[in-house]
Specification:
single chain, 318 residues, alpha/beta, Peroxisomal Thiolase, Chain A, domain 1, 2 domains, five-stranded mixed sheet, 25% strand, binds oxa(dethia)-CoA
Length: 318
C-alpha cells in the first residue's frame, strides 16, 4: 500500500448562524449550560437552497482549486456522510458530475459517522494504491439540522451543518500511520430510509465515556506503530464533539493546549465534517505549514474510532 499526504483543503459552511440564545427560545436551556458543558456557542444550519450536496461540492471544489492539479489526475472521490441529500445516487457521484471529473474512476459515499473522514482517507488510499492516478478527493459533510429533534434539549443544541474536504496524494513510501476500529453499538443512532423517525438519538454520557477512552487508544496505537511520540506531532485535530473531551486528552498526555485545535465554539458537532473543516480553518489562518505532521482523530456513532498521522505537503496560505 502507498502512503498518503494532504495537498490542500476546502470547506462549505452554510450561512445561517444559530446561537445558544436562539435555542433558549425553543427548549429549556441557556448559553451558560451549553457553553460550559460542551464549549459550543453557535452552529451553522442550511437554509434556502443549501443542503448536504451543495456544501460537499463547495468543499471539494475549493480543495481541488487549491491543489493546482488537473481533473484527469483525480483518481477517486470518497465522501463520508450520514445525512446525504440522496440515499442514492451517492453524494460522490453527483460531485463527480458537477466538477467534470473523469468517468473512469471509483467514486462512493461511506458511513463511519464522526470518524467518517478518517475512514475515508483510508478508503481513498486503498483505491489510489490499486490504481495509476496519484490524487484523490476526500470529503466529510453533514446536514445534521435535518435530523435534529428540536424538542430534545439534550441533543438539539449539539449539532451543526458543514463540509470539509482534502485533496490527497498517494505514493510509495510516504509516511502514513493510522488506526481504524469500532466497538459496535447503538449509543448514537438515526433510523434508516423509510422509517417513521429520522432524528438523532444519543446516550450522551455513554458516548462521552467512550470518547475519552477512544482518543488515547487510537493515538497510542499510532504512536506504537510509527515509533513516534506526541513531540513529533505539530497539530492534533480531534473530532469537535465537546471541548471537555479534548481537555481530558490534553490532560492525559500532559500536552501543550495549543497542540489541540478546537473550533466547536462556532460550528458545534458537525460529525464527519468536523475534522476536515477544522483542518481547513487552521490552514486558512496560516497555522498549518508545509511539512507539518498532523494527527487526525475521529470517534462517534457505531461506535467508530479512527486516527491518521500524515503530513501536510501543500502550499501554505499566502
Ligand atoms: O459526535 C458523536 C460523539 N458525541 C459525543 O461525543 C457527545 C458526548 N457526550 C457529551 O458531550 C455530553 O454527554 C453531553 C454534552 C451530550 C451532555 O453533557 P452531560 O454533562 O453528560 O449532561 P447530562 O446528559 O448528564 O445532563 C445533565 C443535566 C440533566 O439534568 P438532571 O437530570 O441532572 O436534572 C439534563 O436534563 O443537564 C440537563 N440538560 C440540559 N440542561 C440545559 C441536558 N441538556 C441540557 C440543555 N440545557 N441543553
Amino acid at each position: 500500500m502507498k502512503g498518503i499526504e494532504i495537498i490542500s483543503t476546502g470547506a462549505g459552511i452554510p450561512s445561517k448562524v444559530m446561537t445558544n440564545d436562539d435555542f433558549a427560545k425553543i427548549v429549556e436551556t441557556d448559553d451558560e449550560w451549553i457553553f460550559t458543558r460542551t464549549g459550543i456557542r453557535e452552529r451553522h444550519f442550511c437554509e434556502g437552497d443549501e443542503n448536504n450536496l451543495k456544501l460537499a461540492t463547495d468543499a471539494a471544489k475549493q480543495a481541488f482549486e487549491r491543489a493546482g492539479i488537473s481533473r484527469e489526475e483525480v483518481g477517486c472521490v470518497v465522501c463520508a456522510t450520514v445525512t446525504p441529500t440522496y440515499a442514492s445516487p451517492s453524494t460522490a457521484c453527483l460531485i463527480q458530475k458537477e466538477m467534470g471529473l473523469p468517468e473512469d474512476i471509483p467514486v462512493l459515499d461511506i458511513n463511519a459517522a464522526c470518524a467518517g473522514f478518517i475512514y475515508g482517507l483510508e478508503v481513498a488510499r486503498g483505491l489510489l494504491s490499486a490504481g495509476d492516478k496519484k490524487y484523490g478527493i476526500v470529503i466529510g459533510v453533514e446536514q445534521l439540522s435535518k435530523v435534529i429533534d428540536m424538542t430534545d434539549r439534550s441533543t438539539c443544541v449539539l449539532f451543526g451543518d458543514g463540509a470539509g474536504a482534502a485533496v490527497i496524494r498517494a505514493e510509495e513510501g510516504l509516511p502514513y500511520d493510522n488506526y481504524l476500529g469500532v466497538k459496535g453499538g447503538l449509543e448514537i443512532y438515526i433510523e434508516g430510509v423509510g422509517s417513521k423517525s429520522s432524528t438523532v438519538h444519543m446516550d450522551g454520557k455513554a458516548v462521552f465515556r467512550f470518547a475519552v477512552a477512544a482518543i488515547p487508544k487510537v493515538m497510542n496505537a499510532i504512536f506504537e506503530k510509527s515509533g513516534k511520540t506526541m513531540e513529533d506531532v505539530d497539530h492534533c485535530i480531534c473530532h469537535q464533539a465537546n471541548a471537555r473531551i479534548i481537555d481530558h486528552v490534553i490532560k492525559k498526555y500532559k500536552a501543550p493546549t495549543e497542540k489541540f485545535y478546537k473550533n466547536m465554539e462556532h460550528y458545534g458537532n458537525t460529525s464527519a465534517a468536523s475534522v476536515p473543516t477544522a483542518m481547513n480553518e487552521m490552514w486558512e489562518k496560516g497555522m498549518i505549514k508545509t511539512g507539518d505532521n498532523l494527527m487526525l482523530v475521529g470517534f462517534g456513532g457505531g461506535l467508530t474510532m479512527a486516527g491518521a498521522m500524515l503530513r501536510f505537503k501543500g502550499e501554505e496560505k499566502k
